[in-house]
Amino acid sequence: xxxxxxxxxxxxxxxxxxxxxxxxxKLLKSLLAKPLTKPKAKPKAKIKAxxxxxxxxxxxxxxxxxxxxxxxxxxxxxxxxxPSGKWLTSFYSSLADSGTLPVRRMSYxxxxxxxxxxxxxxxxQNNNENNALSPLIVMLHGCEQTATEFALGSRMNQLxxxxxxxxxxxxxxxxxxxxxxxxxxxxxxxxxxxxxxMIIGMIKKITEKYPIDKTRIYxxxxxxxxxxxxxxxxxxxxxxxxxxxxxxxxFGAGHSKIGxxxxxxxxxxxxxxAAIAEVLHRTPAFPSMPTLLIQGMSDKIVRPINQTQLxxxxxxxxxxxxxxxxxxxRKPASTAGSRKPANAYExxxxxxxxxxxxxxxxxxxxxxxWSGGDGSLPFNSATGPDASKMMLDFFSLHQRMNT
Length: 403
Known about the structure:
Elements: H1 2-11, H2 18-32, E1 68-69, E2 86-93, E3 105-112, H3 114-117, H4 121-126, E4 134-140, H5 147-154, H6 156-163, E5 166-170, H7 187-190, H8 195-209, E6 212-222, H9 224-235, E7 242-246, H10 257-266, H11 272-282, E8 291-296, H12 305-318, E9 325-331, E10 345-352, E11 355-363, E12 370-371, E13 380-381, H13 387-395
Parallel strand pairs: 4-5, 4-6, 6-7, 7-8, 8-11, 12-13
Antiparallel strand pairs: 1-2, 2-3, 3-5, 9-10, 10-11
Helix pairs in contact: 8-9, 11-12
């Protein structure tokens, strides 16, 4: 039955373009693949083959036992282009969580701009001026991506470096999923278990070690990473000042691999209100959660119905009403031959009082890809608008008050 449903789902994507269809097959294999029980044996001898110019060769980055700074780039996968600052790699172990988790390890990459790397951890503990500390953005990659590919494709480090913002990139382990998918559809994960605890532990480790402003921590992601970002924030709302979800499925449904496909294609109208009610039951004093939603209107992988339902969920979570809309901005597509090609898009802002709590962005002609990214990498569109700039602009408006 599982195979039959998979074939039917693939046939439904036949009308999509070749690029979209290829990505869909990869996502299908990603979710249906069985987790690895043990790592693959290393080959005795390396076989070097000259890659074709159109194929990206993926190298698995090395993970040291402690953070290290990479001064000279060795390959594109391990060292995204940095404006300045440091590119560190390390890991978080569940042993640090008082032994309450099964022993696991999750690697991460961390970009520290000059403003942040020049300060000591001692200054972080003793300086009461938040302006002297750096904001932190946590970026969660999608299926079939590594953390470094996400950094390269989104170009977030370059923009963050200009504004003195640190960026953390957790990386899903191959042991957890052979295609590095976050298990956003898993019921236990949606309730705060699984990788949620690992990501939260990692963030706490970073904020204790580096001069990070704990009132300005933001979380965003694409596709499965967007879904995971939503889950992490909903289970730890006091930690994040705002979130950004690019091409993400609605929250609280799926609960199986095939169920996840149903959500990605059709949403889950029966779970829109119920899932948020469950969150509010677990956290009665849930604070507001400013949210940026970005959706490609030609996305055949995570269809636009998901943004509609995420909007409804954000309304419920933030006590918004139909009268909350304050501004609608429409931008036309760039002219042919423009130096900075961009799709037409529409932005709708929703306020509670004077506070912007929801910004919903719909981008025409964009498929399942990070808008305005590096088009040479999968799941990135070189055509604007620039999603990374949109994230930074939205996050700059929000700060979590100390409790």
